[in-house]
Design brief:
The protein is an alpha+beta fold. The chain has 10 helices and 5 strands. Strands 2-1-3-4-5 form a 5-stranded mixed beta sheet, with helices on both faces.
């Protein structure tokens, strides 16, 4: 059945206008972006197929051009539009962190890191560099590794902190395995980085581990 044949209050666009975007499911939101389906599939059906194939909205955004265009009904133009939406989402969250104390808006930090790192297939270590008011000056991906590990050098982290004249930092890295639990190596690395940065009066506020939609905070675990 075509979406136009659905009851008005069940159609994604009408539902959004009446109840707000937060009332829609992932498939309904994606269907609004898709606008139309393909033969035998409504836009919602196509959205559900994308979610089934990739597993999540984050994974859809992170899909390569080749991966996405293998799905019937998804061409280069849709890939380009998705990438534009993905980048705008990241920039909007980064702007919020630049304008506000990140400790007062922890949800923005988590959302930014989840979007940035959640669906990556290789491990990446990044740092958020903050000023004295805990506003983000810059976010940088400093090291990238294999599926299982990455090499992080404290000296390079200190150099970036000094370059930006940062007062404090927040670390983040992803676990492509999908398990947002810190390893013993993660804890050892965090301590080494904290000790190195203390020598130049830069505080380490937190270290997040991102795995899919899961985000774990070292600070909340009492590990910093």
């Amino acid at each position: 059945m075509a979406i136009t044949d659905w009851p008005a209050d069940e159609r994604p666009r009408e539902k959004l206008l009446a109840q707000g975007a937060s009332a829609l499911s992932d498939a309904e939101l994606l269907a609004i972006f898709l606008r139309m389906g393909v033969a035998g599939m409504s836009a919602v059906d196509l959205a559900r197929e994308l979610l089934r194939r990739f597993g999540s909205l984050t994974a859809i955004f992170a899909a390569s051009h080749d991966e996405l265009t293998q799905v019937h009904g998804m061409g280069s133009s849709k890939f380009v539009q998705l990438q534009a939406i993905f980048e705008m989402s990241q920039r909007a969250l980064r702007e919020e962190m630049q304008q506000r104390d990140v400790l007062a808006s922890p949800a923005a930090v988590r959302d930014y890191l989840r979007i940035k790192l959640g669906a990556l297939k290789r491990e990446v270590f990044m740092v958020l560099l903050l000023d004295a008011q805990n506003r983000v000056i810059a976010s940088e991906e400093l090291f990238a590794g294999t599926l299982k590990q990455t090499s992080v050098y404290p000296r390079e982290v200190v150099k970036r902190a000094l370059h930006h004249n940062a007062a404090s930092v927040i670390f983040a890295h992803n676990h492509p395995s999908g398990v947002a639990e810190p390893s013993r190596a993660d804890e050892t690395l965090t301590k080494a980085l904290k000790d190195a940065l203390a020598l130049v009066d830069v505080n380490v506020l937190d270290h997040f581990v991102v795995a899919g939609n899961g985000v774990l905070s070292f600070s909340e675990r009492g590990l910093i």
